[in-house]
Each structure stands twice: as C-alpha cells, then as structure tokens.
Amino acid sequence: MANERKSKIMFKVDSPYTRIKWPAISPGDQSKILDMLCDLLSPIGQYREQYVVPSKRKRLEKQMKEWKRKQDRVSTVTERGFLSDVPATELPIKAPSGEDLLQDQGCVRNKMPDINCFLKVGFNSTTRHLEELARRSASLKDEPGSGNPSVQLKTLAVVFIPSFEKPSIMYSHLPLLAKTASQASPSMSATRVVILPKGAEERLSAALAIPRVGLVGLLNEAPNAASMVEFIRYIVPDIAIPWFKEAAEGVYLPVAIKEVQKTASVEMPATHKRSSQRAGNK
Q1: Residue 237 has what DSSP assignment?
Q2: Per-residue pLDDT tens digits for 214-245
Q3: Which of 55, 91, 132, 160 has an alpha carbon within 20 to 30 A of 126's alpha carbon?
Q4: pLDDT tens digits for 74-111?
C-alpha cells in the first residue's frame, strides 16, 4: 500500500523589516557586462599562462620545513644565550612564499598588468575588503575625523557575483555589506552589485587562468575600466536598504510570524500493513 501524504502547518519567526531586494538586470545587459569584464581580465590570464609556472607545491613545502627547522634551532640556542654560535646560513630570514618559489623556478618576472592591483578575486578577499570599508564607515560616523588619512583604502566600484538561481546564504550578506562599505567614501558613487549570467564562472576562470573564481571586486579608478563602470552605474540601480530608515524611526514593529504548509509522506506501521493485506486477501 502506498505511503500516505499528510500536510502540516508550521510557524516560522520572520523579520518585521522590509527585505532587501537584489538589483534587477536584464539577461542582455548581463551578457554585455560579462563580455566587458572578460576583456578587462584577459591580460592577467595571458600573463599567467606565459610567465607563471604551475607549481605542485612540493618545493614550497620542502622550503617551509627547512625554515621551521632553522627557526626551532635559533629558538633553542637563544634560550641558552649562544646566538653567536649559530652560523649565518642557519639563520631564518623569512618564511618562504609562492613568490619565492616562482623565482626559484627561474620564472621570468615581467610586469603584471596594472589591472591586477585593482582587483579582489575570491570570496574571502572581496568580503574582507568590504568589511574593512564598512568598519571604517562606522568609525567615521561615531567619531568624525577619526580615520587615518595616511592609510587609504580604495572603495569598490563593482562586485561581480556568479549566477545563482535561488537566494544563496553564501551571498546574502553582500547587499548590506556593499551599502555600508560605500559610506566610507560618501563623495564617490555607491558600490554596485552585479549578478552575472550562467556560465560566468567558467569564462572568468579562463580569462584569469585560475581553476575557480567566486566573487570579483573591482576597485574604483581601475585602468581601462571607466567605460564598463559607467555602463554598470547607468543600468544597475544603487542597493536600497529600506530597514535603515525603518529602524531609525524608532517605531516598535511586532515580530512577523509566517505560516508554512508542508507535506510529508507518512509510512504506515508494519502491523497496519499486515492487517490491510489480510483484509485484502479475504
């Protein structure tokens, strides 16, 4: 006998504030933006394919072990007060990095395209940059003039997101974070958030010559990007955060409770199945 399906009403607590809406972009404009972005990033991929040797990381791991060995030796000797007994070749200067590995492999270090200095590639690097901008904007509100002018942090002109069909928890923080980060430089245009079409991640990976690409952040004043940024600012609206104003009004809003009706299959107990079968046989 088939399992029965039973409906059940469940209650969920929801925010009383108005939800943030993602900027709407037509599929045609999405494709144009992706084409312009790939053209902008392609020199970096060409540079990597020509000059950067893919590493298996074995040499870097070996160098790291050697560095740690020297570090431990110096720590042990200095505890006994005999630093002069350590040969100069045994003194660790710095921990090895991927850049050192490329130099050891004899890689020709031509100049990386200038656009590379105006990019934040990857989920973590882009999010960290936005968080730092948001932190500075909050400190400027609390204490005007408290920012350090000697440390300049460029704002992001655009944040590009690969396509996703359903609202993703991974990217849900970006609209609010981009809006608050824009307030670090009120004189400049707000950061735009652009959702790219399907297949964007593969094309960006090919343009940058790296295995995977998540978020891509483009800083303001990036070279050769003025026309693309102007086009994006023209067609992509600024992110609106309605609850900023709602929260500032100081009016109490009751908690919203949502009713969600769910259906689930209910399997009959084994005793009921056997009794049903016997009744059917009779």
Answers
A1: P
A2: 889 999 999 999 999 999 999 998 888 777 77
A3: 55
A4: 555 444 454 444 454 545 445 554 444 444 443 445 68
Task: Give phi and psi for 35, each to the nearest 5.
Answer: -60, -45
Longest dimension (CA), the chain: 100
Buried b or exposed e, range 138-154, using 16+ CB within 10 angstroms = eebeeeeeeeeeeeeeb
Angstrom distance (rounded) from CA 188 to CA 199: 31
Three-point CA angle 259, 261, 262, nearest 5°: 140
In a 10 Å sphere around its CB, with 0-12 CB exposed, 13-18 middle and 19+ buried, how is residue 15 labelled? exposed
- The helix (run of H) or strand (run of E) holding residue 252 is none
Closest residue by Cα to residue 99 from 51, 137, 162, 136: 51
pLDDT of residue 172: 84
% of the chain at pLDDT higher than 70: 63
Rounded Cα distance between 165 and 233, Å, is: 23
